[in-house]
Amino acid sequence: ATTDSASSQYILTKSTAPGGESGTGSSSTVAVLSGNVAELDFDLTAFNKPRTVKGTAICSFSIYATTNVAQCKLQLRKWDGSSETEIANSYGITYVKRTGGVNTYGYAVDAIEVVVPPTIFKEGETLRVTLEQWGTSQNVPVTANWFIGHDPQSRATSGKEDLVSGAEGTFGTDPSISTVQLPIKLEV
């Protein structure tokens, strides 16, 4: 995914040109937090003619978390420029942090499959892939961080990258790329 320079919107692309960020993160200092901690929208460019999406879509991505439990949800939506209509969704694996202390960072790669019912996109409509990260923080008031990788070149991160104000994380040399495979029917 690359970032639209006019906004903080993410764009699905076949290009492997490096984006400005290796990923996106969030942070919380709430003693016990459970819920949606990050949501990212990745938009395909608008369809230039009607297309049908049908079959199994697969999204593969990297996450980092300092929480007890982390899980991601994949949503496929129709976006007309002003409103979203959900087509399908599915949850990934439930990731439990490695033991080793409050500030142990945990890395995981997940692939979520979602069955897409036959859906027709009109010319000008956009397919939006939304990735939500869900988490449960520690039982003590510590800073919990979440990070989703989406670097087209899967560049290594050095040290701890500043994700958001006060939130840090790193993939090191582990993959930081996200990929999406979409079942689009070709008309020949």
From TrEMBL:
According to the UniProt entry, which residue ranges have a biased composition of type Polar residues? Answer: 1-14
Task: Identify the stretch(es) annotated as Disordered.
Answer: 1-25
Spell out the Low complexity composition-biased ranges: 15-25
Q: Please give the name of this protein.
A: Xaa-Pro dipeptidyl-peptidase C-terminal domain-containing protein
Q: Which organism is the protein's source?
A: marine sediment metagenome
